[in-house]
Specification:
The chain is α+β, with helices and mostly antiparallel strands. Helix content is 32%, strand content 12%. It has a three-stranded antiparallel beta sheet with strand order 1-2-5, with no helix packed on it. β1 (34-37) and β2 form a beta hairpin. α2 (50-61) runs antiparallel to α3 (70-89).
Length: 148
């Protein structure tokens, strides 16, 4: 085994150990990545073509005008690198995975992916799809003598 092959394997093991969100070897990432746009919009990495992902990674790799954004940009760049590896090996596949704690099938990759309202892409804090009590139990179908 060459030094380069060993270092590549070590890097993949490190990423897997630390839950990098993707493998970097072309396998689909488990979680989608939001790309925030102007005007309160967001687009999803899963719906971006290789060209579009490369554009956003290049922007994330540039030094930010304010140092407080450096860590966020580095995290975004790392996440987009997993998506780029996936798109290089699967340029036209529709991705299926987790987005906002829901399993979704993304739209086909595009150079002009749809932009969604940021508020519409996130569930409110503590939101559940059905009412539950403090013990996680659903209420009975009839509410008995509960006055409304």
């Amino acid at each position: 085994m060459t030094r380069e092959a060993f270092l590549q394997l070590a890097g993949q093991l490190y990423d897997a150990q630390n839950g990098g969100g993707g493998s970097g070897d072309g396998r689909p990432p488990k979680f989608d990545t939001a790309i925030h746009r102007q005007g309160g919009k967001v687009q999803w990495a899963s719906e971006c073509s290789l060209k579009e992902l490369t554009f956003w990674k290049t922007r994330a790799d540039k030094p930010p005008s304010d140092p407080k954004y450096a860590e966020r940009n580095a995290k975004q760049s790392k996440s987009l690198s997993y998506w780029i590896a996936y798109r290089q090996s699967n340029p036209n596949d529709q991705w299926r995975g987790e987005r906002n704690k829901e399993t979704v099938t993304a739209a086909a990759p595009s150079d002009r992916p749809e932009q969604y309202d940021k508020e519409a892409t996130q569930a409110p804090a503590g939101y559940t799809s059905h009412p539950v009590d403090d013990n996680g139990n659903a209420p009975p179908d009839d509410f008995g003598d509960v006055p409304f």
